Amino acid sequence: MSTFAVITTSAIPDGTRGALTRWMIEPAPGVYVGTLTARVREYLWDAVRESIDEQYGWVALIHDSDTEQGYAVRTHGTGNGERSIVDLDGVSLVSWPVLEGQGEERTLDHKSITHW
Amino acid sequence: MNRRLPDSLGTPKVLGLHPVKNRISYLYLDTVRVTADRNGVRAHTEHPETGRVERVYLPTASLSCLLLGPGTSITQAAVTALTRDGTVLAWVGDGGVRCYSAFLHESTSTELLHRQVGLLADNEKRTEAAHRHFRLRFDEAPPTGATIARLRSLEGARMKALYKALAKQHGVGPFRRSYDPNDFTASDPVNQALTAGNSALYGICTAIVLSLGASPGLGIIHEHNQRAFTYDLADLYKAETVLPTAFALSKSDNPERDMRKHLREDVRLLKLVPRMIRDIRYVLTGEGTADEEIRTGVVDLWDPEGNVAAGTNYADDGRGESW
Predict the structure, then answer these.
(1) CA distance A73 to chain B (A)
(2) B196: how many CB neighbours lie within 10 A of its CB?
(3) Per its UniProt record, what Pfam families does this chain match (chain A) (predicted)?
(4) Partner residue facing A91 (CB), from B10, B27, B77
């Protein structure tokens, strides 16, 4: 049973990037898309996780799953703006630190210019 | 870098919103502050290990119901964003004290609301609806011509037997449903789980009822409460979801959290949301159709001979001009 999977990466070795393309396509830099069996998916996840740069690298794996959201998410690495996955009674959401000056509410209506 | 946001993302068009049956059933938050930020809605939480303030963006447009527990606060802008996305906001508390924000899309059909009011205005029709409700709840037809009092006593006997069987199955002593509204943790795990599970179930039911354009306040069995119809609906599912789970959690050290996790699985596995939509229609109209025929954005002028289109001038010089 193969399921759809996406792996997004940052700061991983060229060798790993090349290897991933043997299973998946790379439509944007560091983004890999494919249909994988659960076993292959875990195999690639372990391989990518071991090869990333501990200081700057990060990797996220998103794949089809039989949950209410319809997918499961896993992340690894600290170079990801320190994002982590939180589980809220069975729903996976993303949590990341509030940096200096971002604690205030910023409301924008659709007419305003957005800054990011 | 400055860029304009497309108009459609500020206030989503109906086209951009999931129907309630395709949404995540509920999300429960406590001890967080919910604010609007960058056109999204976020919750501020403390990281359990580092103690730093973290942010979690909430998928409001993919969510049917947000349950806010003790210690939460929310800003006006966040509530605006939530209601614009058609998310029902429920405040849930320790003792199960709840109130709901109502959202009503202009495009929501009023057909079911009319049927609901029609039932309440006619005791005979209302009794028929109560019979349909009984049939769904116990999977058997009630005795022909049974009065409401008779249905009540049949229901009582069945529930008593169910509680007894569950208590025996899970080795819980004689069970009494009780909780102290002022001290939630004083009650036993089964009661805590029941209270938490019911809160979440009521939240989902209210969200579904509102999204179909019916009123949670106009009940068939229950009456004189803003959640009367919500209670009617929730009763259809308690015996197969909340009750067995609560008894199974008699030894749990966090019955509330465990209950909500289990309930989420139940909602998904039993396909509860599509079933709720079907059941609401069946109870209110007697029609067993599962297809949602929703007339969006249509306004009529009422006429006992048959409604006529709005937006037309019906002055006596009679040409029925459109404006």
Answers:
(1) 15
(2) 28
(3) Cas_Cas2CT1978
(4) B27
Q: Which residues of B touch A109 (CB under 8 A)?
A: 10
Q: DSSP assignment of B173-232, as one string? A: -S-----BTTBGGGS-HHHHHHHHHHHHHHHHHHHHHHHTT--TT--SSS-SSTTHHHHH
Distance of alpha carbon B113 from alpha carbon B225, whole angstroms: 16
Per-residue pLDDT of chain B (323 residues; tens, 9 = 90+): 556 667 677 667 767 777 777 788 778 888 899 999 888 899 998 877 777 888 899 998 888 888 888 889 999 889 888 888 888 887 776 544 566 666 665 666 788 899 999 999 999 999 999 999 999 999 888 999 999 999 999 999 999 899 889 888 888 877 777 766 666 666 788 988 998 899 889 888 888 888 788 999 999 999 998 889 999 999 999 999 999 999 999 999 999 889 988 888 888 788 888 788 889 989 999 887 444 444 444 677 888 887 777 777 788 765 555 55
H/E element, A97? strand A91-97
- The whole model's pTM is what? 0.69
Q: How many residues does chain B have?
A: 323
Interface test with A, best of B22, B39, B42, B62 (most A CBs within 10 A): B39
Say whether residue A55 is in contact with chain B using an 8 A CB cutoff: no
- Distance CA(B137)–CA(B158), nearest Å, equals 11
- H-helix or E-strand containing B161? helix B148-169
The SS3 of residue A21 is coil
Report the chain B residue with the minimal C-alpha distance to residue A85.
Answer: B56
- Domains of chain A by start residue, with CATH: 2-95 (3.30.70.240)
CB contact A22 to B (< 8 Å)? no
Residues of A in contact with B4 (CB under 8 A): 113-114
Alpha carbon of A11: minimum distance to chain B alpha carbons (Å): 25
Which 3 state secondary structure label does DSSP give B49?
Answer: coil
A91 contacts B24? CB cut-off 8 A: yes
